[in-house]
Write a structure and sequence with these properties.
- This protein is an alpha+beta fold.
- The protein folds into 3 domains: about 70 residues, DNA Primase, Chain A, CATH 3.90.580; about 100 residues, DNA primase DNAg catalytic core, N-terminal domain; about 120 residues, Dna Topoisomerase Vi A Subunit, Chain: A, domain 2 (3-Layer(aba) Sandwich), CATH 3.40.1360.
- It is about 40% helix and about 15% strand.
- It has a 5-stranded antiparallel β-sheet with strand order 1-2-3-4-5, covered by helices on one side. Strands 6-7-8-9 form a 4-stranded antiparallel β-sheet.
- The chain starts with a helix and ends with a helix.
Length: about 325
């Protein structure tokens, strides 16, 4: 079955532009204008990924997967068809909308003391870092009216996912963190704690800052990232959960020589510890050194620092993980 909206989207977005937008670089050009390069869908060691710009199609001779730009988005971001459509729509023309949403939330953060108090409670104490990360707050009102005053239609807002079918703010009563291709909202009340826009969480948070580091600390949550960054750890990145998607796994397994410290939550039920051990084995299969970090029982990196832990103590935990 063909979906008219999907067919239009495939005509609007050149596959080559989108794949290159994910940091893919062709290794060589072959007959009829086709391109070969390392496959961005698996840990490739020799060019096996064929991209045909004229047909807007790809095929990998290594992993055997292929298709159009929507199929690529599904595989690369690890999302179903509908979320891939939403992600591609944002990538193709909704960047300005998300930029305006982020600016609105940034302004609201300074107008709502409950949001500032929550950040302090979570150990976020550097105003310059809040600005750098473009952290904002969704109070749950005025977003739709303000965006429509800028010329966006209600349909635009609903397609992007920033308002619900009822026209309400999707991220109401949440601290909002902009990601590369999405937004992440953390509830400060009783609502579901975690929320993303449709389209997948994207790559590792702050990856461009650490991709050349020989040692990387991987954490679950953005508040973990913030507190480690404040403590002086400039080699930290965040997966937004223990389950890495295809994009994130590819980033860690890009052929560079590095060691990865897995500082996941030390949950009372052991789920974080199991996830870190499983990921260490998974990374090891790609010849990446990975070391699960044992935090005190019941703590994550954020709570470790909030409850009087310091950089020297955390470094000792990293050293112990490798010993």
């Amino acid at each position: 079955m063909k979906y008219p909206a999907a067919e239009i989207l495939k005509q609007q977005i050149p596959l080559l532009d989108y794949v290159e937008g994910q940091d893919w670089k062709p290794a060589r050009r072959i007959a009829r204008g086709r391109l070969m390069g390392l496959c961005p869908l698996h840990a490739d060691r020799k060019p096996s990924f064929l991209l045909d710009p004229n047909k807007n199609l790809f095929y990998c001779y290594g992993c055997g997967r292929g298709g159009d730009v929507i199929r690529f988005a599904e595989l690369y971001h690890g999302v179903p068809f509908g979320e891939a459509i939403a992600l591609l729509r944002r990538w193709s023309g909704m960047d300005s909308l998300l930029s305006d949403v982020i600016k609105f939330y940034q302004v609201q953060l300074h107008r709502h003391p409950e949001a500032a108090a929550y950040l302090m409670q979570r150990g976020v104490r550097q105003p310059e870092l809040v600005e750098q990360m473009r952290i904002g707050y969704a109070p749950g009102r005025c977003l739709r009216a303000w965006l429509m005053s800028l010329g966006y239609s209600l349909c635009d807002l609903q397609q992007a996912g920033v308002v619900t079918r009822e026209g309400l703010d999707t991220f109401a009563h949440r601290i909002v963190f902009p990601l590369d291709t999405n937004l992440y909202g953390r509830s400060i009340g009783k609502a579901d704690p975690h929320r993303f826009l449709p389209g997948g969480k994207g790559g590792l948070y702050g990856w461009e800052k650490v991709r050349n580091c020989r040692q990387i600390v991987l954490v679950e949550g953005v508040f973990d990232w913030v507190t480690l960054w404040q403590a002086g750890f400039r080699n930290v990145t965040c997966s937004l959960g223990t389950g890495l998607n295809a994009t994130q796994l590819h980033q860690l397994c890009d052929g560079a020589s590095r060691a990865v410290y897995l500082a996941f939550d030390s949950d009372h039920n052991g789920s974080g510890q199991r996830a870190s051990r499983q990921l260490a084995q998974r990374l090891g299969a790609y010849h990446i050194e990975a070391f699960p970090v044992d935090l005190p029982d019941g703590h994550d990196p954020n709570s470790f620092f909030v409850h009087s832990g310091d950089a020297q103590q955390f470094q000792a935990l990293l050293d112990r993980a490798r010993s």
